[in-house]
């Protein structure tokens, strides 16, 4: 395997690639956070404390 | 760095790519197994469509006793996103990414939205129906929750389908494109049929808990299918990060696309033909039941006959177009076959001959198959290489919007004509026959628009 000075080990990604993946993870967490909050609100309205 | 950690590092590096969703080498040929795997995204789209239009439509009205007009509004919400397909496709064309991906980020985002919408959906529906403690809560919570859930699923499925088809076009060499289109359509239909059967079976003895299980299971299935479809599919293009290419803006790209290869005319054909074929979808079963007095089991089989006709159409179109037949001519044949199909259905009522009705339905399915296959293949083949996403997005925007309008218009027109004073001049069949005649007119209009395109040979086709 060629040595590439841009790559950061142990993942073998370049800084730019790693930042892009990170952005996807942050975006995904935000979206799922919003969805989870919404689902919890609706589930609470449907059965408060599963009563 | 000592020798052991260096060895370990090399080990990781050689192990790594196998567990990452990258395809570093672009392969020239596209084996069928890979194509089948890619087409799994269409199964998830089909599943979401059946859930929205079929299963939840029924469940909300029958089991949850939600007013039919409210159900209609909720189900129509995803169509709001259909016109944005062109924009999504364009965005995926010009997407710059350090990872060298154009399509994958969009399919992934679409998958997330669809998953999220389906995850929230069952609770939203239960609150909308005022089940459990929700009856004491303000009504708007149900409206907003269900609205967001339907919008999320709609946005997700439009995004996944648009960019997925663009990815398929990227991957397939021109001579394989008819095969790819056929497979995509077949998998969409297969996803719809299989999930309709599974949903029906799973919701046989309905309970709120079972509804939550079924819809959330479909959310997980969406995620699994789409990740399987994406895995190592798109090759990474390596562009030097410091060279920033100026991204063209949407309106300029749009102008270029709309002027190339009679694009406007082709889009008009797609719209008219889809309207012509689409309005009957929801009317075939009630027509068979009310006018021809077929039983519920028989009318359900009608839908199967329609699907079977479409499958035959896709298969035949794939074969013939694969040999270099003009896809627009194929679309024209499809629309042409639809006309006698609808005439047969119209004549079935006065002749009281159900077999003619079944034959007409099969012919319409076959014609719709040829038409859909022909227009999509033409779009793929005529799309400029750097505008594939935009071209397919535009096709999808027109197709999905008119299909949605067709479904809505079919049932609305029937109700309006039924309420008119002349609503039953020709017996119970009057409103249905009016809609069928309207569809014939739409198909003839599509034929009139497509005709000038057929005389001239397509230069870009003969070049390949």
Quaternary state of the chains: heterodimer
Largest interface: A-B, 28 and 31 residues
Q: What is the ordering of alpha helices and beta strands of chain A?
A: EEH
Largest sheet of chain B: none
Instruction: Estimate percent helicity of chain B.
Output: over 70%
Report, as a whole number of angstroms, the end-to-end distance of chain B: 54 Å
Tertiary shape of chain A: rod-shaped
Q: Give the total of beta strands of chain B.
A: 0
Main sheet specs of chain A:
2 strands, antiparallel
CATH class of the largest domain in chain B: Mainly Alpha
Overall tally of structural domains of chain B: 2
Write up this protein.
The complex is a heterodimer of chains A (51) and B (464). Chain A is mostly helical. Chain A has one domain. Helix content of chain A is 63%, strand content 8%. In chain A, strands 1-2 form a two-stranded antiparallel sheet. In chain A, a hairpin with a 4-residue loop joins strand 1 and strand 2. Chain B has 464 residues and is mostly helical. Chain B folds into 2 domains: 206 residues, Up-down Bundle (Growth Hormone, Chain: A), CATH 1.20.1250; 211 residues, MFS general substrate transporter like domains (Growth Hormone, Chain: A, Up-down Bundle). Chain B has 18 helices and no strands. In chain B, helix 6 packs antiparallel against helix 9, helix 7 crosses helix 16 and helix 15 runs antiparallel to helix 16. The radius of gyration of chain B is 24 Å and the shape is globular. Chain B starts with a helix and ends with a helix.
